[in-house]
Amino acid sequence: MSDERAHSVAIGGFIIGALLIALATLLFVLGSGLGSDRTRVVMVFDSSVKGLSVGAPVTLRGVEIGQVTGINLLLDSNTAKLIMQVEADLSGESIQMTEQPSVALIDDLIGRGLRAQLNLQSLLTGLLYVQLDFHPETPVALPAIDTEYTQIPTIPTELERIVSQIEGLDIAQMAADLQSIATNVNAFVQQAPFQQLPADIGQTLASLRSLTAQVESTLSTAGPGIDRVLDNSNTLVSEAKNALPKLTSLLEDNMKVLRSATERFEGTMGEIDGLVSADSATTYRLNEALRELALAGRALQMLAKTLEEQPESLLRGKSENSQ
User: Fold this and answer.
1) How crowded is residue 41: how many other Cβ atoms within 10 Å of its Cβ?
2) Alpha-carbon distance 232 to 227, whole Å?
3) For 34-38, 265-269, 270-274, which range has the lowest pLDDT when averaged over its residues?
4) Does some domain include residue 184?
5) Which H or E element spans position 63?
6) What pLDDT band is residue 310 in, cutting at 50, 70 and 90?
């Protein structure tokens, strides 16, 4: 009887222990977020992922929203190019949203510029993590890979861009160009004109100093004369200002006299026009007097001719033949 009771107690204790273990496991799963809804995404990087491991955080502007779940090395059979495929699970528990992250939501974020980068967690450890952020100015570059998950475009970091630019430089050619430049500079420095350059510069500076001294001496000598010229100029300007009103008044008086003479001249010309017009009485009388003078002149001419031909006509009178 006691054995059966002990057996029952053992079975009960085993069941209670199993329930406690199940409850603890459930609490752990719920507390760690492993039981929440997650969305798996994939990212492809061209650079090395050394330092990135499964479980590395995925952050969005510094807030952890997921973890890396897988890292695969892919070889492109056409180009023999190696690419790194990184898979990660994103959780919406760290972001307050109206809905859980879905494929449609992530696609919308990608359209708004969501990009992935590899960054250092610590310079001491060299560990990497995946940083998500918005870079709408960058193009959407999605390598062709066989995956069922949403692919987030990746962009290089600033350090990777600098390293890529340095790797693209032709260091050997740059060194050869620098060597050629150094050789040409050395040859130029060794030439006589360049060797004479310091002496020429010294002579030029001496000439400038001499010229400066001459200018200063000339200015000091001519200073009083310049002052007198300026004083005379000021006096002349003052006198001109004083004489200007008198000259203006004289010009105005002369203009009045000139206008009066012009008016009288215009009146006289009008009277002359009235006298010499064709239908005026004065013109008619002048014409009559001119005709009478002409007749008198003709009579005198005839008398002179008669006396020349018949002088005796003064005694006898004119002959009838002469009529």
Assistant:
1) 25
2) 9
3) 34-38
4) no
5) strand 63-75
6) low
Question: Mind listing the pLDDT tens digit for each residue in 161-194?
Answer: 676 677 677 788 888 888 888 888 877 778 877 7
In the block, residue with structure tokens 């004119």: 318
In a domain, 44, yes or no: yes
Please count the structural domains in the chain.
Answer: 2
Tokens of 46: 């061209």
pTM of the model: 0.43
DSSP states of 195-222 as a string?
Answer: HHHHHHHHHHHHHHHHHHHHHHHHHHHH
- Final residue of a structural domain among 158, 191, 223: 158
What distance in Å separates the CA atoms of residue 39 and residue 67, rounded to the nearest whole number?
11
User: Which position has the higher pLDDT, 42 or 300?
Assistant: 42
Q: Which residues, 6 or more positions from 315, have their beta carbon under 8 angstroms from its beta carbon?
A: none
Q: Which domain holds residue 291?
A: 276-308
